[in-house]
């Protein structure tokens, strides 16, 4: 049965036999369920293997022939009877349209009878023609194949325009690359040939994935890859430029999550990428912002985040592009290298971040929970120290092991140690008490030790009103009646002389069994300290005169009170606010045993200031005339004058009269009348000793106590009370004397004395 096979729809037949094929321009042969019979024939002609019916029946071959026919028709529209496929229906038989054009009956217009006749007559020629046609078809099929692939790519691109690409409309540079390509008539050109590179959307796809998604031929892979890497380069450049423009600001603001071209830039890792584990190298990499933002809750993405994200994304693409030939370990190490490289680039060898990276490595090997705490604390500290522009650190929550709550701080047991009240405590109290001396219910706190004597210590103390006093604390044998009476005698003397300015004031006292506390006015320095301070210095006669006068004035007060001190020495004179005062008198006299005095002197050396009569035991006769040998020491006021003479002697020569003797020899020399005191006119420093001074010392150091000057005589001596004259007085005196002598033939000795007294009297009236 012949059947008219034509691509032209019959009048009564709107659609050809193959109308059951999908009527879309984008028909896919794979969807053809029942291929047309003619396609079998065409496929057989195209098939290289004539003996292979499978190749003839191959739908792929059929599909190829269809495309080739369509392409041929399109390319030969002009001058040809148009065997159109523009009806929207795919053409299966237009391969032979050229024969129609050559007035040859088209095979498609022949019926079966004609074909049989033709075949029998012109079999050979037809076979050759078919062979040639087959060859030309091969060539055409190759080009058609490429075109069809490209067309599929374009179709996918159009679909992309309707899909994700349309969401890229926010991009202000125009429509997507796919939309541009859809209007591209030159199907042989790749998209990048006419489209800006930035308009190609790869998304998260690598070139291979991109080809697969859009069904592009593998031959496009090099150009797609080139496009992909150029796009990467462009993005890197934009990222670095934005980093310089906004060094600390976030690069991405207000962008769409799905923006195809800016998605890698504008979407932070926190939003686009799954949260990384702590072991993810992105946490180690880059800046501290990245590091800590990755640790914290969703944060504002920063440029560095973008850069790192891109880097990581690039690494992931690379790993996929390498067809996952590398192991995950290698990929991770690659990410680490990239991230650490970013540290150097972005932070200029910021050691703190390198350390942070190292520390993070160490954290990985530590307990994760500890690492979390440490990281969070570190994050908080750095946020304050480095003034990171990131929001306040948020405790990590979504990390792999961050779900664990941070451990509670260890409970610190407060152990309150209560020291028992021991002897130490009471000792402290005792020590405090020891520093406090109560005299008649008045507390005195010890400040320092001023000096010590044979049986006493003298402290500088203060009362509750911070007033300063001298506390003399004497410890004695309470069962020694003579000692008790002796101390009482001293107290009586002090009370007697309490109104005397030259005697140290006794303010209060209290006698307890074996202890006597005396509160006195406190002196600043004693005379012993002053003499020691001037030892070795040149003689200053005025210094000696002043201190000698002060000393004797003190002694005068005591003597005028009928009291013999009997123990005068430089240490017993103290300056109280510039006034020399006498202390510690009377006690020695209150003690009958003078050995105490000797003993005391032995403690300080030798009895340098004691008078000979006070050292030599004197035999006395009783009132009945019987001689009684008994040690008695006659100690009176002349003894105090001897002592004062010794002190003046020391101030002139630097040491007491018998100071050249050592030990007991000194004592013997003092008691021995044959041992004379030497009064040199020169000091050790070859200073001349004034005559008045010599005379005063000699008058004080007479062995016979009765011949010694009294204190009053000493105070009136030329040494302590000198006559001061002026040069005018001397000139007048000489002139008058010569004139008087010229008038007198002879001036008697008495007359000279008379004249001298007259001059002295006038000098006293002059009051220089
Ligand atoms: N009121 C005072 N102000 C300042 N210092 C003082 C006072 N009383 C005593 N001292 C100092 O204490 C030292 C000893 O004092 P004091 O001579 O009264 O003790 P003592 O036991 O009588 O000694 P001694 O019996 O050997 O003379 C003195 O040399 C003096 O330096």
Q: In order across it, which strands form the biggest sheet?
A: 1-2-3-4-6-5
Largest sheet: 6 strands, antiparallel
DSSP helix count? 31
Shape: elongated
Q: DSSP strand (E) fraction? A: 5-15%
> SS-based structural class?
alpha+beta
**Unreliably modeled segments:** 1-113, 156-195, 248-327, 339-350, 362-376, 378-402, 421-426, 590-606
Mean pLDDT: 64
Number of strands: 11
C-alpha Rg (nearest Å): 67 Å
Question: Secondary-structure blueprint of this entry?
Answer:
Blueprint: H1 37-46, H2 53-56, H3 59-75, H4 97-101, H5 112-121, H6 123-162, H7 177-182, H8 191-194, H9 207-213, H10 221-245, H11 263-266, H12 269-272, H13 281-284, H14 288-295, H15 303-321, H16 328-347, H17 351-364, H18 368-385, H19 423-435, E1 436-439, E2 442-452, E3 456-462, E4 468-475, H20 481-496, E5 506-512, E6 515-520, E7 525-526, H21 527-533, H22 541-560, E8 573-576, E9 579-582, H23 587-590, H24 595-604, H25 612-615, E10 618-621, E11 627-632, H26 637-653, H27 664-671, H28 691-700, H29 711-715, H30 727-743, H31 749-766
Antiparallel strand pairs: 1-2, 2-3, 3-4, 4-6, 5-6, 7-8, 8-9, 10-11
Bound molecules: adenosine-5'-triphosphate (ATP).
What key phrases describe this protein's structure?
single chain, transferase, kinase, six-stranded antiparallel beta sheet, alpha+beta, 768 residues, binds adenosine-5'-triphosphate, ATP binding, 48% helix, elongated, 8% strand, Prot_kinase_dom, Mps1_cat
Describe the overall structure:
With 768 residues, the protein is of the alpha+beta class. The strands form 3 sheets. The chain has a 6-stranded antiparallel beta sheet. Helix 10 packs antiparallel against helix 15 (303-321). The model is unreliable at 1-113, 156-195, 248-327, 339-350, 362-376, 378-402, 421-426 and 590-606 (pLDDT under 50). Bound molecules: adenosine-5'-triphosphate (ATP). The site of adenosine-5'-triphosphate has 23 residues, from strand 2, strand 3 and strand 4. InterPro entries: Kinase-like_dom_sf, Mps1_cat, Prot_kinase_dom, Protein_kinase_ATP_BS, Ser/Thr_kinase_AS. Residues 105-114, 169-183 have a biased composition (Polar residues). GO terms for molecular function: ATP binding; protein serine/threonine kinase activity; protein serine/threonine/tyrosine kinase activity.
